[in-house]
Amino acid sequence: MRDRAGDPARTGCRRLRLSRGSFFDPCLPRVVMRNVPYPGGCSRGLLCLRRERKARRSDALRWHGRARRLCWAPGVGVEWLEVVEGLGFMAHHLAPGESVELAGLLCSRMAHDLVGPSGAVANGLELLREEADPEGIQEIAAMLEKSAATLNARLQFYRLAFGMATGLGEELEGRLLEKSLSQLLAHMRVTLSWAVATPLVAKQEARILLNLALVVAECLVRGGDLLIKDEHGRFTITGQGERIIIPDDIESLLKLPDAPVTPSPRNAPVLLALMAARARGRLVTLEELRASGGYSPQDGGRGCLRVAIAAPDQA
Question: Are residues 244 and 102 in the same domain?
């Protein structure tokens, strides 16, 4: 594959075989990938890189971290991609096919989570028609109330976490996020502590927070506590509980956002959070993982899972 400069052998270009998460030569202090489309349908591309002084840093790209990697999303044509002093950028755009797939996975996830409480409401109404005993009617009414509250909490949460939340502006009130998340976690036996001082949170930032909070909370299989903290724009989501189980694919994505995993309804919230983080120029990192309790008296025998959301210079 050639870029506009022509044959790399005659122009001084350096050929590097790159894939998602592949290593590049750290000896090149400044490398610019110009007008290089990703080969459609391929998992690898032979790209021509050449030294150039002129480069434009796009907000569609983000620092990948301290590792010496050059990454990009499949199906994306990158206008400029600059690598400076061993640090890489990554394009956050999804190819059209991938966007459709992610949307489908999120729909499947919502349908899976909503069918339980909605089915319970339908069954309760059917029982209510047949029940004549006042005590039985009272029990069914309590069951209906609980199922309806669960259904409402999930719908309100998914509207903010997965949807566009149209009509709420480009910034969301912190107390709205706290209320929505707290109501959802109450049905998961998880207690929320919200330590975010800022009254308004950008909608994209809120999407990152809510989706990662959902992921961490679901790893608290026996319930526990969830702390969301903001320190000068650096967010941490800490889950603590007697037992923590994190699926391998989710752990891989939190450790390395470009890990080769099979997309599924279970990991779709992580994929959405990572895409939103790239769009915001943020890094998502897995800071701590103790999968089960019994470590020391200091931690009370509880496991801990901590995820951080930060700007590149805060990571």
Answer: yes
In this structure, the answer to whether residues 155 and 277 fall within a common structural domain is yes
300 belongs to a structural domain? yes
Residue 128, amino acid: L
pLDDT surpasses 60 at 93: no
The alpha carbon dihedral of 91, 92, 93, 95 has a sign of positive
The mean pLDDT value for 128-157 works out to 91
Helix, strand, coil percentages in the chain from 3-state DSSP, rounded to 5: 40, 25, 35
Band (pLDDT 50/70/90 cuts) for residue 6 is very low
Contact 242, 208 (CB under 8 A): no
Tell me the residue range of the domain where 78 lies: 8-91
For residue 195, which of 185, 209, 183, 184 has the smallest C-alpha distance?
209
Residue 16: CB atoms within 10 Å? 17
Beta bridge partners of 225: 191, 240
- Give me the half-sphere count of Cα atoms (radius 13 Å) on the Cβ side of residue 313: 2
In a domain, 75, yes or no: yes
In which band, very low, low, confident or very high, does the pLDDT at 232 lie, cut at 50, 70 and 90? confident
**The last residue of a domain, from among 66, 91, 116:** 91
The two structure tokens encoding residue 116: 């339980």
Domain boundary among 56, 91, 126: 91
Nearest Cα to Cα of residue 71 among 125, 8, 23, 2:
23
State the Cα torsion 144-108-201-194 to the nearest 10°.
Answer: 50
In a domain, 2, yes or no: no
Instruction: Say if residue 191 is in the same domain as residue 206.
Output: yes
